[in-house]
Amino acid sequence: MLDALLPFHPRLVHFPIALTVIGAVFTGLGLLRRRERWISYGQLSALLGWLGVIAAIVTGLIDQSRAPQDAAVTAVINQHITAGVALLISLGLAIYWPLRNKRLFNEGSARWGYIALLILIVTLVAIEGWLGGKLVYTFGVGVK
Length: 144
Ligand code: HEM
Known about the structure:
Blueprint: H1 9-12, H2 14-33, H3 36-64, H4 71-100, H5 108-138
Helix pairs in contact: 2-3, 2-5, 3-4, 4-5
The protein binds protoporphyrin IX containing FE.
């Protein structure tokens, strides 16, 4: 019966992708236009996105065990895992940093550092999605 639900991972990945990107865009725009409420919405979305990334990593690791043992597939899965872990860490930092430094969003240089972090996060989401798509559409992982 459980087999009917496999693969798990593609069912869950859209939530963290959307929540993370919306979180980064709202927070970034809130910082640039100095709208505190946009920043709050962005931070909430980023937190939900981070929880979703954890779920994506867990289900990805489960699905990975069923992937073909092929060197080309393994290489892309390793890149996908690296980008996924980098996303987990950088998004976690984007949530933790403002909690640690309450004045972060008002301090000039730190504010720009934070915006750079948001750009990194969106870039990692794009890379992660692209590598995941490569696994499915180039190598047929999870569909063959
Ligand atoms: C770090 C641990 C991860 C592993 C081991 C992993 C593994 C996989 C595997 C094996 C696939 C092929 C489809 C399947 O069999 O499920 C896949 C696809 C995919 N993964 Fe991951 N993944 C991980 C993390 C993530 C994260 C964090 C995201 C995004 C937040 C993500 C986004 C995707 C996407 C978009 C696809 C393509 C799905 C589709 O087009 O149907 N993965 N991943």
